[in-house]
User: Fold this.
Amino acid sequence: MPFRSKAQMRKFAAMERRGELSRGTFRRWLEETPNVKKLPERAGRMADKNGNDKKFIAGAIKRQGWLRAVAKRLGMTTYEAAQHIVNQYRAGKGSWTQKDFQAAMFYLRVLRKAAKKKGE
Assistant:
């Protein structure tokens, strides 16, 4: 398995010195790494199998409670409130932030995927 970053290389070297990894693991991974000089200092964020950023998804899920509260305040369903936020944000109206917009878009995307799977 090749290294993904220089930080990972340092971590593996330290772990091997401390005896937390079997001897030769670092060397084996180093041999499988195509170009050590081109490795980034740190690897980017982890993405799920669909290419979605895991930290973004976690934040959007936490904000779903907020979305339900907004829907209740506006007297709409959660789906209608999400559409309302997206439309107003895109039109530059209202005081919706980018995080509000992203949470609403995530909610709509999840619903569309669920509906698509149900229809298959």
